[in-house]
Protein backbone atom coordinates (compact mmCIF):
# COMPACT_ATOMS: atom_id res chain seq x y z
CA UNK A 1 0.00 0.00 0.00
CA UNK A 2 1.03 3.64 -0.42
CA UNK A 3 1.76 5.87 2.56
CA UNK A 4 3.01 9.40 3.02
CA UNK A 5 6.03 9.49 5.28
CA UNK A 6 8.72 11.84 6.53
CA UNK A 7 11.85 10.01 5.39
CA UNK A 8 15.38 10.64 6.61
CA UNK A 9 17.40 9.96 3.47
CA UNK A 10 20.74 10.81 5.03
CA UNK A 11 22.44 12.17 8.15
CA UNK A 12 22.10 15.91 8.56
CA UNK A 13 19.54 16.19 5.77
CA UNK A 14 16.05 17.61 6.31
CA UNK A 15 13.22 15.09 6.43
CA UNK A 16 11.52 14.62 3.06
CA UNK A 17 7.76 14.10 2.79
CA UNK A 18 7.35 11.41 0.14
CA UNK A 19 5.00 8.58 -0.73
CA UNK A 20 6.51 5.22 0.19
CA UNK A 21 5.35 1.64 -0.25
CA UNK A 22 4.39 -0.32 2.86
CA UNK A 23 4.27 -4.12 2.58
CA UNK A 24 1.57 -6.11 4.41
CA UNK A 25 2.33 -7.39 7.91
CA UNK A 26 3.97 -10.80 8.12
CA UNK A 27 3.66 -13.39 10.87
CA UNK A 28 3.51 -11.76 14.28
CA UNK A 29 3.24 -8.26 12.81
CA UNK A 30 0.58 -5.56 12.75
CA UNK A 31 -0.22 -2.77 10.28
CA UNK A 32 -1.05 0.44 12.15
CA UNK A 33 -2.47 3.72 10.88
CA UNK A 34 -0.63 6.43 12.81
CA UNK A 35 -2.99 9.26 13.74
CA UNK A 36 -0.65 11.26 15.96
CA UNK A 37 3.06 11.33 16.72
CA UNK A 38 5.34 13.30 18.96
CA UNK A 39 8.83 14.45 18.02
CA UNK A 40 11.50 13.43 20.51
CA UNK A 41 15.03 14.80 20.77
CA UNK A 42 16.27 11.28 20.06
CA UNK A 43 14.75 11.53 16.58
CA UNK A 44 16.73 14.73 16.02
CA UNK A 45 19.86 13.10 17.44
CA UNK A 46 19.62 10.22 14.98
CA UNK A 47 18.87 12.56 12.09
CA UNK A 48 21.97 14.62 12.93
CA UNK A 49 24.21 11.66 12.19
CA UNK A 50 25.68 11.52 15.69
CA UNK A 51 23.77 8.37 16.62
CA UNK A 52 26.16 5.41 16.17
CA UNK A 53 23.16 3.14 15.50
CA UNK A 54 21.58 5.46 12.96
CA UNK A 55 20.92 3.87 9.57
CA UNK A 56 19.67 5.61 6.44
CA UNK A 57 17.36 5.99 4.64
CA UNK A 58 14.84 5.48 7.42
CA UNK A 59 11.41 6.42 8.71
CA UNK A 60 12.05 7.89 12.16
CA UNK A 61 9.59 8.52 15.00
CA UNK A 62 8.83 6.59 18.18
CA UNK A 63 6.13 8.53 20.07
CA UNK A 64 3.00 7.51 18.25
CA UNK A 65 -0.62 6.60 18.66
CA UNK A 66 -2.72 4.82 16.08
CA UNK A 67 -5.34 2.32 15.05
CA UNK A 68 -4.82 -1.29 13.95
CA UNK A 69 -5.66 -1.78 10.27
CA UNK A 70 -4.53 -5.36 9.65
CA UNK A 71 -2.91 -8.16 11.61
CA UNK A 72 -0.52 -10.79 10.34
CA UNK A 73 -0.60 -14.53 10.85
CA UNK A 74 -0.54 -15.64 14.46
CA UNK A 75 -1.45 -12.29 16.00
CA UNK A 76 -3.88 -12.94 18.85
CA UNK A 77 -3.75 -9.94 21.18
CA UNK A 78 -4.93 -7.33 18.67
CA UNK A 79 -7.54 -6.93 15.97
CA UNK A 80 -8.45 -4.26 13.41
CA UNK A 81 -9.90 -1.19 15.09
CA UNK A 82 -7.89 -1.48 18.30
CA UNK A 83 -6.15 1.68 19.49
CA UNK A 84 -2.46 1.15 20.18
CA UNK A 85 0.82 2.77 21.18
CA UNK A 86 3.98 1.50 19.42
CA UNK A 87 6.73 0.63 21.90
CA UNK A 88 10.47 0.66 21.26
CA UNK A 89 10.89 -1.67 24.24
CA UNK A 90 9.32 -4.89 23.04
CA UNK A 91 8.16 -7.56 25.45
CA UNK A 92 7.69 -11.07 24.12
CA UNK A 93 7.22 -12.44 27.63
CA UNK A 94 9.05 -15.64 26.73
CA UNK A 95 12.78 -14.90 26.43
CA UNK A 96 15.09 -15.05 29.44
CA UNK A 97 15.29 -11.27 29.67
CA UNK A 98 11.54 -10.76 29.70
CA UNK A 99 11.14 -13.51 32.29
CA UNK A 100 13.89 -12.15 34.52
CA UNK A 101 12.00 -9.01 35.46
CA UNK A 102 15.33 -7.15 35.52
CA UNK A 103 15.60 -5.78 31.99
CA UNK A 104 13.58 -4.79 28.95
CA UNK A 105 16.17 -5.92 26.38
CA UNK A 106 13.83 -8.43 24.74
CA UNK A 107 15.76 -10.99 22.72
CA UNK A 108 13.05 -11.19 20.07
CA UNK A 109 14.04 -7.79 18.65
CA UNK A 110 17.44 -7.08 20.17
CA UNK A 111 19.50 -8.32 17.21
CA UNK A 112 17.49 -6.56 14.50
CA UNK A 113 15.85 -3.42 15.88
CA UNK A 114 19.08 -1.43 16.10
CA UNK A 115 19.77 -2.29 12.45
CA UNK A 116 16.47 -0.80 11.27
CA UNK A 117 14.89 -4.17 10.54
CA UNK A 118 11.86 -6.18 11.60
CA UNK A 119 12.50 -9.27 13.78
CA UNK A 120 12.83 -11.44 10.65
CA UNK A 121 15.70 -9.27 9.40
CA UNK A 122 13.83 -7.51 6.59
CA UNK A 123 12.02 -4.20 6.13
CA UNK A 124 8.41 -3.41 5.19
CA UNK A 125 9.19 0.02 3.72
CA UNK A 126 10.49 0.90 0.28
CA UNK A 127 10.79 3.94 -1.97
CA UNK A 128 11.22 3.68 -5.73
CA UNK A 129 12.02 0.01 -5.27
CA UNK A 130 14.78 0.62 -2.72
CA UNK A 131 14.46 -0.46 0.92
CA UNK A 132 13.76 2.08 3.65
CA UNK A 133 14.81 1.16 7.18
CA UNK A 134 12.62 1.08 10.28
CA UNK A 135 13.49 3.01 13.44
CA UNK A 136 13.34 1.70 17.00
CA UNK A 137 10.79 -0.85 15.85
CA UNK A 138 8.13 1.85 15.55
CA UNK A 139 8.64 4.35 12.67
CA UNK A 140 5.78 6.66 13.58
CA UNK A 141 6.68 9.33 11.01
CA UNK A 142 4.58 7.46 8.45
CA UNK A 143 0.81 7.39 7.93
CA UNK A 144 1.03 3.60 8.00
CA UNK A 145 3.67 1.54 9.77
CA UNK A 146 4.25 -2.15 10.43
CA UNK A 147 5.12 -3.05 14.01
CA UNK A 148 5.75 -6.37 15.75
CA UNK A 149 2.79 -7.47 17.88
CA UNK A 150 5.08 -7.61 20.92
CA UNK A 151 5.94 -3.94 20.35
CA UNK A 152 2.38 -2.66 20.67
CA UNK A 153 0.33 -1.74 23.73
CA UNK A 154 -3.45 -1.74 23.41
CA UNK A 155 -5.08 1.32 24.98
CA UNK A 156 -8.60 2.36 25.89
CA UNK A 157 -10.31 3.67 22.73
CA UNK A 158 -11.71 6.55 24.81
CA UNK A 159 -8.18 7.83 25.47
CA UNK A 160 -7.28 10.65 23.04
CA UNK A 161 -4.49 9.47 20.77
CA UNK A 162 -3.06 12.98 20.48
CA UNK A 163 -2.27 12.75 24.20
CA UNK A 164 -1.49 9.08 24.80
CA UNK A 165 1.03 9.03 21.93
CA UNK A 166 3.42 10.74 24.37
CA UNK A 167 3.29 7.65 26.58
CA UNK A 168 5.50 6.00 23.97
CA UNK A 169 8.59 7.75 25.32
CA UNK A 170 8.70 11.07 27.19
CA UNK A 171 5.94 10.57 29.74
CA UNK A 172 6.93 7.04 30.68
CA UNK A 173 10.61 8.04 30.84
CA UNK A 174 9.85 10.67 33.46
CA UNK A 175 7.21 8.84 35.47
CA UNK A 176 9.17 5.59 35.28
CA UNK A 177 12.26 7.30 36.68
CA UNK A 178 10.24 8.30 39.74
CA UNK A 179 8.46 5.03 40.42
CA UNK A 180 10.82 2.36 39.08
CA UNK A 181 14.30 3.83 39.45
CA UNK A 182 14.23 6.32 42.33
CA UNK A 183 11.21 4.78 44.07
CA UNK A 184 10.18 8.10 45.55
CA UNK A 185 8.11 7.74 48.72
CA UNK A 186 5.47 9.87 50.42
CA UNK A 187 6.98 12.96 51.99
CA UNK A 188 10.25 12.88 50.01
CA UNK A 189 11.74 16.07 48.62
CA UNK A 190 12.73 16.01 44.95
CA UNK A 191 14.41 18.44 42.56
CA UNK A 192 13.62 18.40 38.85
CA UNK A 193 16.18 20.02 36.53
CA UNK A 194 14.68 20.95 33.18
CA UNK A 195 10.98 21.47 32.64
CA UNK A 196 10.52 20.03 29.18
CA UNK A 197 8.32 17.02 28.50
CA UNK A 198 10.38 14.60 30.58
CA UNK A 199 10.77 17.04 33.47
CA UNK A 200 7.03 17.66 33.60
CA UNK A 201 6.47 13.90 33.57
CA UNK A 202 8.84 13.57 36.54
CA UNK A 203 6.75 16.15 38.38
CA UNK A 204 3.61 14.15 37.63
CA UNK A 205 5.27 11.01 38.93
CA UNK A 206 6.41 12.79 42.09
CA UNK A 207 2.86 13.98 42.70
CA UNK A 208 1.61 10.41 42.27
CA UNK A 209 4.21 9.28 44.80
CA UNK A 210 2.98 12.00 47.21
CA UNK A 211 6.32 13.75 47.43
CA UNK A 212 6.36 16.47 50.08
CA UNK A 213 8.22 19.12 48.07
CA UNK A 214 8.90 19.24 44.35
CA UNK A 215 11.50 21.81 43.32
CA UNK A 216 11.24 22.81 39.65
CA UNK A 217 14.52 24.17 38.25
CA UNK A 218 14.83 25.92 34.88
CA UNK A 219 16.47 29.00 33.38
CA UNK A 220 13.22 29.81 31.54
CA UNK A 221 10.71 31.14 34.08
CA UNK A 222 7.90 30.88 31.52
CA UNK A 223 7.94 27.14 32.15
CA UNK A 224 7.05 27.55 35.82
CA UNK A 225 3.35 28.09 35.13
CA UNK A 226 2.83 24.66 33.62
CA UNK A 227 5.13 23.07 36.19
CA UNK A 228 2.90 24.53 38.91
CA UNK A 229 -0.18 23.13 37.21
CA UNK A 230 1.51 19.72 37.19
CA UNK A 231 2.15 19.93 40.93
CA UNK A 232 5.56 21.53 41.54
CA UNK A 233 5.78 23.37 44.86
CA UNK A 234 8.97 25.44 44.53
CA UNK A 235 10.46 27.22 41.53
CA UNK A 236 14.12 28.07 41.02
CA UNK A 237 15.77 29.99 38.18
CA UNK A 238 19.56 29.51 38.51
CA UNK A 239 20.09 32.88 36.82
CA UNK A 240 18.51 34.62 39.81
CA UNK A 241 21.40 33.67 42.10
CA UNK A 242 25.08 34.53 42.34
CA UNK A 243 25.98 31.08 43.62
CA UNK A 244 25.72 27.57 42.14
CA UNK A 245 22.13 26.37 42.08
CA UNK A 246 23.02 23.24 44.03
CA UNK A 247 24.05 25.44 46.96
CA UNK A 248 20.74 27.26 46.76
CA UNK A 249 18.83 24.00 46.84
CA UNK A 250 20.85 22.64 49.77
CA UNK A 251 20.01 25.78 51.76
CA UNK A 252 16.32 25.63 50.85
CA UNK A 253 15.98 21.97 51.80
CA UNK A 254 17.91 21.78 55.07
CA UNK A 255 20.86 19.90 53.66
CA UNK A 256 19.65 18.63 50.31
CA UNK A 257 16.88 16.77 48.54
CA UNK A 258 16.08 13.08 48.74
CA UNK A 259 16.14 12.65 44.96
CA UNK A 260 17.15 14.83 42.02
CA UNK A 261 16.26 14.27 38.38
CA UNK A 262 18.36 15.71 35.54
CA UNK A 263 15.99 15.94 32.56
CA UNK A 264 18.16 17.82 30.06
CA UNK A 265 21.26 15.80 29.25
CA UNK A 266 23.70 18.57 30.16
CA UNK A 267 26.88 17.50 31.95
CA UNK A 268 27.10 20.68 34.02
CA UNK A 269 23.50 20.32 35.12
CA UNK A 270 24.15 16.68 35.98
CA UNK A 271 26.81 17.82 38.43
CA UNK A 272 24.41 20.28 40.03
CA UNK A 273 21.78 17.56 40.33
CA UNK A 274 24.31 15.23 41.92
CA UNK A 275 25.48 17.79 44.45
CA UNK A 276 22.10 18.98 45.71
UniProtKB/TrEMBL annotation:
GO terms for molecular function: alcohol dehydrogenase (NAD+) activity; S-(hydroxymethyl)glutathione dehydrogenase (NAD+) activity; S-(hydroxymethyl)glutathione dehydrogenase (NADP+) activity; zinc ion binding. Residues 197-276 form the Alcohol dehydrogenase-like C-terminal domain. It comes from the Bacteria. The keyword Zinc applies. The keyword Signal does not apply. GO terms for biological process: formaldehyde catabolic process. GO terms for cellular component: cytosol. Residues 27-155 form the Alcohol dehydrogenase-like N-terminal domain. InterPro entries: ADH-like_C (IPR013149), ADH-like_N (IPR013154), ADH_3 (IPR014183), ADH_Zn_CS (IPR002328), GroES-like_sf (IPR011032), NAD(P)-bd_dom_sf (IPR036291). Its EC number is 1.1.1.284. It catalyses: S-(hydroxymethyl)glutathione + NAD(+) = S-formylglutathione + NADH + H(+); S-(hydroxymethyl)glutathione + NADP(+) = S-formylglutathione + NADPH + H(+); a secondary alcohol + NAD(+) = a ketone + NADH + H(+); a primary alcohol + NAD(+) = an aldehyde + NADH + H(+). Pfam families: ADH_N, ADH_zinc_N. Keywords: Metal-binding, NAD, Oxidoreductase, Zinc. Its cofactor is Zn(2+). Belongs to the zinc-containing alcohol dehydrogenase family. Class-III subfamily. NCBIfam families: adh_III_F_hyde. This is S-(hydroxymethyl)glutathione dehydrogenase. It comes from Klebsiella michiganensis.
